[in-house]
Amino acid sequence: MELETLGPFRAPEYQGALFRGGFGKHFRDLTCVTRAPDCRGCSRSRGCPYSMVFETPVDPARFQVLRKYPHAPHPFVLAPDMSGARELRPGASLSLHVTLIGPGAGYLPHFLVVFDAMGREGRFGGRFRIRRVVAATGGGIVYDGASRQFIGEPPDWTWPAESTSEVRRLSL
Q1: What is the pTM of this model?
Q2: How far lies 89's CA from each of 59, 118, 128, in Å?
Q3: What percent of the chain has pLDDT over 90?
Q4: Number of helices (H), then strands (E), in the chain
């Protein structure tokens, strides 16, 4: 995801805290229909975007390895550009790498709405806008921020068919 600053922008030493900190709050504020103080016992949790992304339920019959945990790992990874620039001028570029995993890919529109709201609010370092979303595989433009339109589908990454090795560990 390529972002553009709309005014002076101040980033903390670890930019991940900047984006991750506001992301969960904004996601819940924009998607929760009950406005309950927390999600425990919510009758809508199985279809709620916030619950599916941040409090992903575990089906122990399907995923034995997770049976002891109340929630599955988040289906996304946020990795900011760690270029070290802390004071940015208006019009500067910021990169935020967003990896959506499995069913998390279906929540890309929610992620865009949330980052758009964070950028308009400006509470997290300063105001910014989404310039565009570029696919990590293939490099095609998925979303254009100026027109607020999806240009193409983000491609799925799959394990190479020609590989004969068994996957034992995968790092994101």
Answers
A1: 0.84
A2: 47, 18, 11
A3: 29
A4: 3, 8
- Tens digit of each residue's pLDDT (9 = 90 or more) over 53-111: 888 877 777 777 877 887 888 889 888 876 667 788 999 998 888 989 888 889 999 99
Alpha-carbon distance of 54 to 27, in angstroms, equals 9
CB 114 within 8 A of CB 26: yes
Beta strands in the chain (DSSP E): 2-5, 9-10, 76-80, 87-88, 93-100, 128-134, 141-144, 149-150
For 87, list phi and psi in degrees, rounded to 5. Answer: -110, 115
CB-based contacts of 96: which residues, under 8 Å, 6+ apart? 1, 3, 19, 78, 79, 80, 81, 115
